[in-house]
Amino acid sequence: MGEFELIRRFFAAAPCAQPAEGVALGIGDDCALLQLPPGEQLAVSTDTLVVGVHFPHSPDPFLLGQRALAVAASDLAAMGAAPLGFTLAMTVEQADAAWLQAFAQGLSQMAQDCGLALVGGDTTRGPLSLTLTVFGRVPAGQALTRSGAQAGDLLCVGGELGDAAGALPLVLGQRESSGPAAQQLLQRYWAPQPQLALGQWLRGRATAALDISDGLLADCGHIAAASGLALQIEAQRVPLSPALQEIAGVAARDCALAGGDDYRLAFTLPAEHLPALRAQWPACAVIGQVLAGSGVQLLDAAGCLVDPPRAGYQHFGSAGD
Amino acid sequence: MGEFELIRRFFAAAPCAQPAEGVALGIGDDCALLQLPPGEQLAVSTDTLVVGVHFPHSPDPFLLGQRALAVAASDLAAMGAAPLGFTLAMTVEQADAAWLQAFAQGLSQMAQDCGLALVGGDTTRGPLSLTLTVFGRVPAGQALTRSGAQAGDLLCVGGELGDAAGALPLVLGQRESSGPAAQQLLQRYWAPQPQLALGQWLRGRATAALDISDGLLADCGHIAAASGLALQIEAQRVPLSPALQEIAGVAARDCALAGGDDYRLAFTLPAEHLPALRAQWPACAVIGQVLAGSGVQLLDAAGCLVDPPRAGYQHFGSAGD
């Protein structure tokens, strides 16, 4: 048996690969078989992470496993889909048992947190790279897309932004810091929590949604373009964590506006749903509104239009995705 | 707009990315949405192809696009699934417009041949690598797995084997040949035809099936192991093309037995279905039978057990998958 066959058996035995609801046939045949309840659609998204592009060389394998799945699962949250399963295509330079075990532990931890079952995949030799395809289910016609925003809707986000961008100098080893604030930012970078429950709650309420990966301003631009409207953001309403403000100082707000890697939801919401949002999801914040027009407008504390900050810091995602 | 955003728009405009039955939402949002008829399950398979491992450096992009999708779609055929769609995760060193256009043409050609719609994907910078996840649909409980073979079943294959293995010295540039036989083998290597219609016909008839990728003997070993039985192969009944015999000479049979990359189906069939198979699928051949026991037995023309040939030639798949 070759070492790659061993890897396959290793993943097939991982906790996240065990029988799960909605998975009629898991790892080990030519295809996996997924089962959908009547009236539901399958949501599918594919993400690739490449060493040196999306994460540093020699990453901690446990953290890499966690983060890779979280990034992919966040797209399910953005559609309002309930988690079902995922496939993992993994390219590694060599089959290192300890490395793989730690990776599988991180992956399984996040899979358990998200409610996603590993249903198949492929393992090949080559430069370290991961492609995850995630599957969710959503009642037909109820998925949250980017194109439904309406003038007058509120623009909201799922919580504090910028922590992952604030963590980047730490991730890259450009800065050393071991205090609790630094640890919190690193945790947000390596183990983002896909907002799956929030996404499902937003079905039938939000008019458009996505998950923030490129940065708030860039991603709001996607909603604006898809919906044919303008999104106006009041910069001082964007929530920042105390940890980010401690680590990033005056750059904290730019991290939140342009930094990326947040994997929190941004969504447009008719005002009638605001009381329910506040009651159910107190971490969510209204940061602006939807207007006739196009593009994204940024307002300062005085309500004046300002130029958006450039995403000037090094950003793993910027080169490749 | 970055060059990778341009690639995404390029693929979104490709013929294979246009609206298709079963695809409720295609490229451009956080997820694609697939729709299944009531009572059907979704078949899913993921395959990765890495430059230098699964295909030569500097491949013809049109041929690479064709072959990558064919290899992935063959897993749908092996389950008896009807084709639905696929995602493409593509990692490239740089965005070369002419290269990408040729690649997309090859991909679209095979997508059209197979009836598969491009529903999403990801494009990143890095060493050339492709991960395709294919989706098909199959009536619940009717998928062809590897585990259902019964003692007494006939062992069959979907047509002539070994052409792709016979093409490898040509693909690798170890041998020059421009005659029609060489062209036929190269065509079989670069544009395998997934046996999707045969796979669907075998539903309710074959007891086990897979597609031959690792080589007939190795893949029959997978059916034997999953079914808990032995598979007996009569070497001289394995069909060989005249082109392969011309190019490979005495090595032709070893190419067919151990070569791999065939992407034809191997399946076990109760004898009662043989007349219908012969009538509908004349290219299929009975090459042996299922017996009590374990493993794969190879018989020579005199009916004597012989040792299987070693897969001795260079094989792109052998190092990584």
Structural commentary:
- The structure is a homodimer of 321-residue chains.
- In chain A, strand 1 and strand 2 form a beta hairpin.
- The C terminus of chain A is likely disordered.
- Chain A has 2 domains: 137 residues, 60s Ribosomal Protein L30, Chain: A; 157 residues, Phosphoribosyl-aminoimidazole Synthetase, Chain A, domain 2 (Alpha-Beta Complex), CATH 3.90.650.
- In chain A, helix 2 runs parallel beside helix 6.
- By secondary structure, chain A is of the alpha+beta class.
- The first copy, chain A, is built from 11 helices and 13 strands.
- In chain A, strands 8-10-7-11-9-12-13 form a 7-stranded mixed β-sheet. In chain A, strands 3-6-4-5 form a 4-stranded mixed β-sheet.
- Chains A and B meet through strand 2, strand 3, helix 2, strand 4 and strand 5 of A and strand 2, strand 3, helix 2, strand 4 and strand 5 of B.
- Strand 3 of chain A pairs antiparallel with strand 2 of chain B.
List the helices and strands and how they pair.
The structure is a homodimer.
Chain A lengths: L2 H10 L10 E3 L6 E3 L5 E11 L10 H19 L2 E11 L4 H18 L2 E9 L3 E11 L14 E4 L5 H9 L8 H11 L5 H7 L5 E4 L4 H12 L2 E5 L7 H7 L3 H7 L6 E5 L4 H7 L4 E7 L3 E5 L5 E2 L9 H5 L1
**What's the end-to-end separation of chain A, in Å?**
37 Å
Task: Tell me the name of the CATH homologous superfamily of the largest domain in chain A.
Answer: PurM-like C-terminal domain
| Rg over C-alpha atoms of chain A, rounded to the nearest angstrom | 20 Å
* Largest sheet properties of chain A: 7 strands, mixed
Oligomeric nature of the chains? homodimer
What is the count of distinct domains of chain A?
2
Biggest sheet strand order of chain A reads 8-10-7-11-9-12-13
Shape of chain A: globular
The low-confidence runs of chain A, each spanning 5 or more residues with pLDDT under 50, are 312-321
Number of helices of chain A: 11
CATH C-level class of the largest domain in chain A is Alpha Beta
Task: Just name the CATH architecture of the largest domain in chain A.
Answer: Alpha-Beta Complex
Order of helices and strands of chain A: HEEEHEHEEEHHHEHEHHEHEEEH
Q: Structural class, from helix and strand content of chain A?
A: alpha+beta
Which two chains touch over the largest interface? A-B, 64 and 64 residues
Give a count of the beta strands of chain A, DSSP E runs of length 2 or more. Answer: 13
In CATH, the topology of the largest domain in chain A is named Phosphoribosyl-aminoimidazole Synthetase, Chain A, domain 2
Strand share of the residues of chain A? Answer: 15-25%
